[in-house]
Design a protein that fits this description.
The protein has six helices and three strands. It is mainly alpha-helical. The longest helix has 14 residues. The two termini are 38 Å apart.
């Protein structure tokens, strides 16, 4: 079996490396970013975010729409709230959920645009 030759630094561009290292965020920020993107790695959470992109909804409506239990939806909404991806408001005894801000809409829309290319 042919093995790839060991990587050797033939020519290092120190100016590029220095520029990138200077602009590189702290490890803690990169960790938080990776944790944020992990939330988008679950089909149920993606479905919830997508329906909230279209309309503010209560847990019962989301559960009915996705053919899931209110308990399962509530669990996922809790995770999405903790990550500041969704927000809620009360109207009497009913709690309505919506996307937290335009950043979340942009992430979803950009992702959809990317997969449809």
């Amino acid at each position: 079996m042919n093995e790839a030759p060991a990587c050797e630094f033939i020519h290092v561009h120190e100016d590029i490396i220095s520029s990138v290292l200077t602009a590189m965020p702290e490890e803690s920020k990169l960790y938080r970013l990776s944790e944020l993107y992990k939330l988008f790695g679950d089909m149920t959470r993606i479905k919830i975010l997508y329906v909230l992109l279209k309309s503010e909804m209560c847990v019962c409506d989301i559960a009915r729409l996705l053919n899931m239990t209110t308990s399962a939806i509530s669990h996922q909404l809790k995770l999405l709230k903790q990550a500041s991806l969704v927000k809620f408001r009360r109207e009497g005894k009913t709690v309505f959920y919506s996307l937290a801000d335009d950043h979340v809409k942009t992430i979803i829309n950009n992702g959809m645009e990317h997969i449809e290319e």
